[in-house]
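Practice problem: predict the structure.
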Amino acid sequence: MLLHGFGAGSGHWRHNAAALVEAGWCVFGLDLLGFGASSQAPLRLDNRLWARQLEAFLREVVRGPAVVVGHSLGGLVALTCAVFFPAAVRAVVAAPLPDPTLLLADPLAPWAAPPRKPWRRRLQRFLVTWLCRLLPLELVVPLLAHSPLLDLGIQSAYNTPVIGDWELHRVIARPARQPGAVRALRAMSIAMALRPHGATAPALLKRLNRPFLLVWGREDRLVPLDVAEQCRRLRPDLRLAVIAAAGHCPHDETPAAFHQALLPWLSALPNA
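Answer:
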């Protein structure tokens, strides 16, 4: 089960699906709500909602536990689904795993934080909601989606030059140009900021009881390799594969190296 990252869609696995099929795997791709060709309704878009979407797809379409391979945001969704719906997930691959809370996590802290007082929750909800509403996304998103700035943004996720890769450009530009893109982005910004502690990556990593592979590009400028080391401090037993020449999108930028890290690990998984 392949899950794309922020701003992309299932087409971002363009260099990987065929290789996995050739290795004997049955492969599915899913556009998360708010991205790709999926609905952009202004729901509370956070990793808990996407995990429920994934679990429903696995239950109704796949009809069995799956290995979930997620890029970036998709990796966080895969991890969330494995913790909240363990019967639906056989193993998890995150390439990489982004979550700002990882930068602040204490490896010795318990996964369940003490509950916040109601007035603090209400104040936080009020401030986050209004700050996100004040952001001029109606101007920024169309500007990015219809200008060369989009290509510069894509390039920041890659170590090697990709400007001029029109297939990649279409994968990112198409959902960003949909009428509901601004509403979906604002809804996601609010919901992700207001997640409870139990839905953050540090808490999820401590609760995970499924095989877990972490893949990271050594040249990742968006989510540096230091974050991977923090993941290992939280879960010393997890497997980390570092791809030397890759940036934030190792599956797309260096697919051969990505498959070399992924396929042997998949072959070594215990039978479902």
